[in-house]
Amino acid sequence: MRILIAEDDLTSRAMLGGLLKKWGYEVIAVSNGQQAWDELVKPDAPGIAIIDWEMPELTGIEVIERFRKREASNYAYMILLTARDDKGNIIEGISKGADDYVIKPFDPEELSVRIRAGQRIVDLEAQLLETNRQLEEIARTDPLTGLANRRALIQELQSRFQREMDYSMPTAFIMADIDYFKQINDNYGHDAGDEVLKCVAERLKEAFRFGDIVSRFGGDEFLVILPEANPKLVSTISERARRMIEEKVFEISDGVSLPITCSFGVSFSNLKDKTSVDKYIKQADQALYESKRGGRNKVTIFAVNCTE
Ligand code: GH3
Ligand code: MG
After folding, report:
1. Closest Cα to atom 23, ligand 1: which residue?
2. How far is the centre of ligand 1, averaged over its atoms, from the C-alpha of 253 (Å)?
3. Around Cβ 207, how many Cβ atoms within 10 Å?
4. What b/e sequence results for 95-113 when a residue is b if at least 16 CB atoms lie within 10 Å of its CB, and e otherwise?
5. What are phi and psi of 222, to 5 degrees?
6. Which numbered ligand comes closest to the C-alpha of 201?
7. Tens digits of per-residue pLDDT, 84-120?
8. What would the pLDDT profile of 38-54 be if each residue is shown by its tens digit?
9. Which of 90, 106, 123, 228 could be disulfide-bonded to 169 (CB atoms 3.0-4.6 Å)?
């Protein structure tokens, strides 16, 4: 565990630092409030800070108050260390955001247990963040194929469109749908259908490169996004993906293998109109419908005359 000490008095700083090191902590020692702030807002900021009240540049209480008002979410457990010992000061310190308060001169044993109490909070907070990260991951992932799900894809697209307004290349939307998938479920069972979905997902991941997003859009439909796409190249890549699926023999259970094909529909974002993600998804869907109508196992690029 790393602990920040912010203390302007050299002797006190050295003494406290020595003590913490003896207790096994890694110490970052600074001598004013501004330096304390700079340490606390670093991405790998220490989890616990012991902060003197009176310091040049920014006082300890100002550092704590500012830190608590900040937008970013990482927590630091703040122990205010000061000679101010009246009740009013304690109330002010804690109400402005200190987690704890130790009066100088301090009793080392008392400080040690207070740090350990802080460490429990910091550990709990780290566990909470990790759990939230895992939940977020689960909420964004299709459990069967491990691909991004529809919700994650739409979110990603919307934020990319907001960020990348002036890209010189369009974004490609490639919708792929397994042909006659219902028959696989009907003839071989739902588990066999699931295996086919997983295999198609694998093929699509192979066919598209790093940086493209392959998602399971729903049922037997997959949506692939190619940011900054060269339209000619996208046709070629989609055609290659179609062929990779067609050429692969899908083994659904011991000794039973099936030929599988997918139909594809492709659309491109208009460089001047990156506002509507839905519109391009619909266009890819319309092109896909043309592939289905045209006999399946085809790639169709959206054109205005695609059936509405
Ligand atoms: P088309 O060639 O026109 O696409 O015909 P299709 O048979 O593929 O028809 P459709 O796309 O309507 O069928 C999709 C089927 O996918 C229907 C649904 O029962 C099945 N399905 C959806 N999700 C899952 C899943 O997670 N696992 C399995 N095994 N089947 C699924
Ligand atoms: Mg289908």
Report:
1. 219
2. 19
3. 21
4. ebbbbbbbbeebeeeebee
5. -120, 140
6. 1
7. 888 999 999 999 999 999 999 999 999 999 999 999 9
8. 999 998 999 999 999 99
9. 228
